[in-house]
């Protein structure tokens, strides 16, 4: 590996090959559609609960809650998977593709947190599932910090764009960029991820929340997650070959081609339709949400509520 690393880092190619699996048109579009679909459903669910707090217990919006629950699990795992694969392939990925993965993982984080904002009382029913989610959120944070350190090292050493991102740790550099907008932006993103994790942890684990403060946090949180999703999407689109202008010379236009993998990603967007039909037909059900005053009044705890039977509700 050392010989391979030295050889790849000393020779600077003029261009790099495209990678449709990272920055292809279908990958970006499917990620974007999923993110804003989830954020839209989460916002509508929060608005529904605010306007009709008692009605939401009798009519708990089963379809949206069921879909959001599935999307929440999916998005946190997508974020962890994207970053894990990116780190494993750090000797093959250029800073350009590495940054695209960073933006997609940031998008999945915002999507997961949007679902968390609207389904927090559902997640509190089972302390095992709640702490499992907390562990996944912490793992996602660690990976995002490692990603930020990689990108920061590449910016400081002024790594050529056509070299693998891992060369930032082995290749000596004559120039050092300790400032600049890119370096500051990377530090801000890492700090923002840590702040969001802290707030999400408090939101998920807190048992006593006043209803008004709870709703304010929900409203501010959903706006913040929508802003982060919009910013990450815009940055990825403007930088990608499929929709914008890359900051590195690509030897082909494979990221603009709608290959089988790109079309498959778009077709996967139809899966929620099947879930909606199953819920409407009564083949799947979800327990109704817990009233907010259960947690704010301290009458009971989520752990005690686990053993209670919750009758399936019809859509």
UniProtKB/TrEMBL annotation:
Transmembrane segments: 20-47, 98-123, 135-154, 183-204, 216-238, 258-277
The organism's place on the tree of life at top rank: Eukaryota
Record region (Disordered): 290-315
InterPro entries named in the record: Elsinochrome_Biosynth-Asso
Entry keywords, A to Z: Membrane, Transmembrane, Transmembrane helix
Name of this protein: Uncharacterized protein
Species assigned in the record: Podospora pseudopauciseta
Lineage: Eukaryota, Fungi, Dikarya, Ascomycota, Pezizomycotina
């Amino acid at each position: 590996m050392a010989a391979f690393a030295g050889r790849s880092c000393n020779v600077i190619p003029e261009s790099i090959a495209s990678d449709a699996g990272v920055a292809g048109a279908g990958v970006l579009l499917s990620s974007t559609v999923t993110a804003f679909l989830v954020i839209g459903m989460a916002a509508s669910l929060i608005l529904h609960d605010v306007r009709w707090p008692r009605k939401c217990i009798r009519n708990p919006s089963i379809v949206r809650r069921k879909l959001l629950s599935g999307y929440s699990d999916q998005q946190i795992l997508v974020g962890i998977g994207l970053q894990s694969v990116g780190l494993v392939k750090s000797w093959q990925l250029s800073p350009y593709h590495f940054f695209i993965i960073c933006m997609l993982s940031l998008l999945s984080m915002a999507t997961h947190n949007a679902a968390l904002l609207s389904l927090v009382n559902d997640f509190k029913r089972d302390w095992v599932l709640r702490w499992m989610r907390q562990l996944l959120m912490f793992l996602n944070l660690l990976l995002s910090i490692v990603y930020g350190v990689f990108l920061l090292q590449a910016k400081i050493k002024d790594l050529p764009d056509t070299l693998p991102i891992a060369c930032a740790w082995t290749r000596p550099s004559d120039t050092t960029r300790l400032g600049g907008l890119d370096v500051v932006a990377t530090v801000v993103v890492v700090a923002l991820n840590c702040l969001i994790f802290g707030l999400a942890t408090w939101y998920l684990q807190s048992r006593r929340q006043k209803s008004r403060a709870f709703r304010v946090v929900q409203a501010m949180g959903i706006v913040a997650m929508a802003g982060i999703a919009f910013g990450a999407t815009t940055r990825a689109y403007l930088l990608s070959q499929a929709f914008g202008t890359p900051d590195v010379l690509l030897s082909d236009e494979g990221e603009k081609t709608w290959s089988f993998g790109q079309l498959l990603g778009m077709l996967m967007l139809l899966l929620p339709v099947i879930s909606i039909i199953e819920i409407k037909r009564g083949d799947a059900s979800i327990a109704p949400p817990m009233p907010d005053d259960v947690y704010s009044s301290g009458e009971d705890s989520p752990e005690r509520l686990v053993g209670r039977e919750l009758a399936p509700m019809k859509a």
